[in-house]
Design a protein that fits this description.
heterodimer, A: about 240 residues, alpha/beta, Rossmann fold, 6-stranded mixed β-sheet, 4-stranded antiparallel β-sheet, 10 strands, B: about 260 residues, flat
């Protein structure tokens, strides 16, 4: 596969209060790649992710997903193909039970009942949560919530997974289980994180974002090996 | 926190629990309407309604004590609203006092209105308690949705139920954080911090709402919730609806 999953060309974004969020971001991600987006708190990682499925819009022409510019007429197609997993699963799981949450995407896509049930079952199986359909989301543990949150987008069969801090607030066991789970999913992944264990395990390419700008882009080995670079952007112990 | 706070006992299995939520919703609506429309002082009808309620409690196997205890919540509201009626309603005086030039009197007509209001609201709340304790909240929402209740209402109710506990947990954590830094604060300060906490909670909920909306949009939401239909009317629904109709209509015709 040599298709471009994401193409971003000179994207800038300011928050409604005028503060600069992203400055002139250009980034191309091929299909099948696993890219980590790392950077200190407030670097603009989440903001950049939200541009990938048109929740936030800078210049319309700046972002292309699977060759389609992020515009109103393509938005449905794009949102189906970019599975966005938010940082706080409490935000992602807004329905009264697990089934409804996982079915939310397929239902909105207008699939027939049987297909919906098949997709929910399959998605829950992929994240190892089969049998939880009737449980209420509020009562799951944080690790289970994270898994179900991933299932809610897997049920749409996305080509691209965009994950915001997937391992935050997980204990080490939960974290490694989640990393294994993500590794088993054969899709393009864009992971915003500052968990370097996760990055080293899952991604072959790393992009460092700081103060709204891309400051480095290279292979995982290169970048994680460069203590000075990491330290300079608040990702490792202070480089002296 | 316990999640079953609202629909406690809805997990039981009984005739009433198994009914279609639409039957129960419409039945409750009919019952409430009948109670509200009954002319004041028609005690025979009120007795029939109470019998209907008692029958439903038996059929649904809800603990009587629980139902009665829960129904008490209505009294503060009713009394707050209606307590002054006996004093202002014109009519025959039951008792009166003179305070200087000021005459305060309670009239029989006024008392009748008060009793009427109390009885009616008590019967209604009993009915709603049976409804909410015999139906899972999700089913209730499904029922509302299928009965074409405006989607906005259904969605707001659903979000309320989903996030009530999240927000309550948040409030509890804030309270703990406050208490762990709070040594012998005086009263006015306490009120100020409570005010701040409420404000903070509002802002946090607002921001959460924005994130939830983004999460909904990401999964193809376009302003319309399409629910998966799992409800089915069955013959017990028909029997129940028919008997409830008879129970409400026949006595009303006889004794209106």
């Amino acid at each position: 596969m040599n298709e471009k999953a994401i193409e971003i060309n000179g994207l800038s974004y300011s928050y409604p209060d005028g503060q600069c969020g992203l400055i002139d971001i250009s980034l191309t991600i091929d299909c099948g790649e696993s890219v980590a987006l790392i950077g200190p708190n407030g670097a603009g990682k989440s903001t950049l992710l939200l541009h990938l499925n048109g929740i936030l819009r800078g210049d319309d022409a700046a972002v292309k997903v699977l060759g389609l510019p992020v515009e109103d007429k393509h938005i449905k197609e794009i949102r189906k193909n970019v599975g966005m997993v938010f940082q706080d699963p409490e935000d992602q799981l807004f329905s009264l039970n697990v089934f409804e949450d996982v079915a939310f995407g397929p239902v909105n896509m207008g699939y027939p009942q049987q297909e919906i049930e098949r997709r929910v079952k399959q998605a829950l199986q992929k994240v190892g949560m089969q049998g939880y359909e009737k449980r209420s989301s509020h009562h799951l543990s944080i690790g289970e919530k994270k898994r179900v949150a991933i299932a809610t987008v897997l049920s749409m069969d996305p080509e691209i997974l965009a994950l915001d801090e997937p391992t935050s607030s997980l204990d080490p066991r939960g974290k490694w289980a989640l990393i294994e789970l993500l590794r088993s999913l054969p899709v393009t992944k864009i992971i915003a994180s500052h968990d370097l264990d996760l990055v080293a395990c899952l991604c072959d390419r790393v992009v460092i974002l700081d103060e709204g700008k891309i400051v480095a882009d290279g292979t995982t080995k290169e970048i994680l090996g460069n203590e000075k670079l990491l330290g300079g952007h608040g990702l490792a112990r202070i480089a002296l | 926190m316990k999640h079953s706070f609202v629909d406690e006992y809805s997990g039981l299995d009984s005739f009433v629990h198994r009914l279609d939520p639409r039957t129960k919703l419409l039945g409750s609506l009919a019952f409430v309407l009948a109670v509200v429309l009954t002319p004041p002082g028609n005690w025979r009808l009120f007795a029939v309604y109470l019998c209907v309620i008692a029958g439903l409690v038996l059929l649904s196997r809800l603990p009587l004590k629980y139902v009665l205890k829960r129904s008490l919540v209505i009294f503060p509201f009713v009394i707050m609203i209606a307590i002054f009626v006996p004093f202002f309603k014109q009519g025959h005086e039951a008792a009166g006092y003179d305070i200087g030039a000021w005459h305060i009197a309670v009239t029989y007509e006024g008392l009748a209105v008060l009793v009427n209001v109390v009885v009616k609201s008590w019967l209604c709340i009993l009915c709603l308690i049976i409804l909410s304790s015999s139906t899972k909240f999700e089913e209730l929402l499904q029922g509302m949705y299928r009965l074409k209740v405006p989607q906005v209402f259904v969605q707001i109710t659903s979000f309320m139920y989903r996030y009530m506990f999240v927000i309550a947990d948040q409030a509890m954590r804030m309270q703990m954080a406050r208490d762990s830094r709070n040594f012998g604060m005086n009263r006015s300060n306490i009120f100020r911090t409570i005010g701040n906490m409420v404000g903070m909670l509002f802002i946090r909920s607002y921001e959460r709402a924005e994130r939830i909306y983004a999460a909904m949009l990401s999964r193809g939401y376009n302003g319309e919730i399409v629910a998966v239909n799992k409800l089915k009317f069955q013959s017990p629904d028909a029997y129940f609806a028919l008997s409830l109709c008879l129970l409400l209509v026949c006595p009303a015709i006889l004794w209106w």
